[in-house]
Amino acid sequence: REDLLKKSEQLALVGQLAAGVAHEIRNPLTTLKGFLQLLGEDKKASIYIELLQNELNRIEYITGELLSLAKPQATSFKINSLKMIMDQTVEFIKIEALKNNVKMVLSIEEVMFECESHKIKQVFLNLFMNAIEAMPTGGTLNIFLVKEKSDAVIIIQDTGYGIKEDRLRKLGEPFYSTKEKGTGLGLMICRKIIENHKGTFTIESKPNEGTTVKVTFPLISS
Ligand code: ADP
Ligand code: MG
Questions:
Q1: Are 39 and 45 in contact (CB under 8 A)?
Q2: Of all atoms in ligand 1, which is nearest to the CA of residue 126?
Q3: What helix, strand, coil percent values describe the chain, rounded to 5?
Q4: Mutation pick for ligand 1 pocket among 69, 123, 177 (CB with most ligand atoms within 8 Å)
Q5: Could you read off the pLDDT of 64-90 as tens digits, one per residue?
Q6: How far, in Å, from the CA of 76 to the mean position of ligand 1?
Q7: pTM
Q8: The ligand 1 atom nearest the CA atom of 187
Q9: Contact 213, 127 (CB under 8 A)
């Protein structure tokens, strides 16, 4: 069991660094993309150019993610239905679940919460996708949303390959990913968003059995 929110100081520093690096990379990137577009009209070179374009798109995506991480927080908190946000996100990942032979079991209560809905959607999306990606040969994805006292409690449970204990500590560190196409930024972004909503975030896992992610949000604003 690992409390992922204890690294907030470390996170602030990483955020500053990330913003600096991302800005430096972004401008030459835009120029490169422009010239590649022009070159793309030459037939022979087109395979290489496509590869280059894919790599550039990936760098662009990562710098975008890093920038969003480092940006000062917008404060457009509104009362939202967490159920609605969750239902929309579930709808979005249904095809992905189907493709991976993942059965979804949902238990979603109505809970109203003052939050930034698109940020919360981002958290749900990454946690759901991580769960599905952990079950490449199928399994069950349990998703709960309940109101417990003055908290919204969200539990996302998969029957996937799990996480080894020594790896559990690395979660939420930037660029830690075990996936070929992973960025290792998802959990870090989740952690930051949850922190901004004064929530808590814990992960429990057993190798070859599965992973349980628990997120709570306080419903009474301070
Ligand atoms: P990414 O998904 O791009 O790899 P994340 O920050 O979302 O980056 O996750 C980091 C790493 O944590 C993943 O590469 C994976 O090894 C591990 N992980 C996250 N969620 C799960 C899960 N539900 N089951 C198993 N491993 C997970
Ligand atoms: Mg992820």
A1: yes
A2: 7
A3: 50, 25, 25
A4: 177
A5: 887 777 666 656 899 999 999 999 999
A6: 29
A7: 0.81
A8: 6
A9: yes
